[in-house]
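Before surveying the methods themselves, let us examine one representative protein, pairing a chain with its fold in token form.
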Amino acid sequence: MSKILRIYYLTLIIISFYVSMYVYFNNIHPGYDFLFILPFIFSISSMFLFVINNKNISLNFLYLLYFIRFVVLSYFVVYSNWYGGRAFFPPQESSFNLAVILMCSEFLLINIFYFIFVNKKDINIKKSNLNFKYNDNILDIVFISFVIMSIFLSIFIRDHISFFGLSMGSENQAMELSSFRTLIFFCVYISKYLLIGLIINYYFKKYKAQKNHIYILLSLFGVLLVNMFFLGSNRMDHVLPFIASLILLNYLYRKKMIIYNLLAFAFLILSVYIISIFRQTFEYQIVNDTVALITDYIQIYFAGVYNVALSLEIAASTSQNIFITFLYDLYRPFLGLNLFWRSDYLNTSAELFNDRIFDGEQTTQIIPMLGQFYLPFGVLGVLVSSTFLVLTLYFFLRILSRSYIINGLIIIALIIRLLITPVQNFGIFMNEFSSIVLIMLSLNAFAYILRLNTKKEKIK
């Protein structure tokens, strides 16, 4: 594992340094004069990881994300000559330059804060540092009961459920759910995690007792089977449970999972592609050139320099109170609380961002985290957002240790969602966080009450 990781990071270093030189000598757009710094910074940071040979899951996942954002995208922008984007009016040259500086600062700050606060707490495949609990009969009963209830209730959202994309209609997926159906949707979504967790825990205990590799295969088959049921057309609602379960399986079985990971990733790519077809992601093509089109998609989904630059300009074009806007950004997506504050006059930063791109014609783009925090805090926003992200990661990792394995699976999913936040924003994270945590806290609280009552009965 150590040799594989070293080869992996050495490869990243070589590619990143090459891309930095390629971009420096071949860029022809004045707004991208500093673009070469992104892959260069990444290559320098990767050298540090190559030396220390860090096996922590969160850090390696972050580096994979930033490799696509800093290195792959930079190369494609220059190679394809696609320096534009979706906006009616491109960002100013100064906004491009500031975007590069802030993106570098964000990456470096996250690295610094990670090694100060998180490094020793992170998930490590080589070390058994999480100390999961594998037996809790009362919690299992509560979880199984909740899954059964959710399966019966799923009839109310049957038009949003499909088996591997079959019978999924884009017109149904686009319909907005009522509050009641939204609650059921979240219940079914949580049940998907619980069912995966129950399967993994059951077969792992069988494996520990009998050391038979068939239980690894059965675990993976169970995870794949459950993930074949698609809920809605949001790709992340499918990707998160799958990646979280894959991380957990690799933590439990380590080297024995290597061969199965190839099958798992093939399944993941296929299923995301199917969902993308039903979302009609590939229908709108802003440019005919295939390489330029790929560049445009990476730019959108990984918060490239162009989109970050656009997000830095919304502060100058809004008359709203920027601090109230920021609070509204975090409050509005929070399940339950959003019922008490809905404004017809106050726009979120995402809406302001889309106004900057499309001049009010549509709201389809995600404002990057940098732009969301730059709006109220200016250049200090990169410090605030990086600190907030790493401290939240530290909190999740603290409660992950010594948790019940099924709760641990869901915490891992929240960690993955948090790590994706730099290319999205905290509003999206808050929506996922609130929907999962409110239901899981209720289930665990109910199990706690049952446990207390059981103890009282035994005393009597």
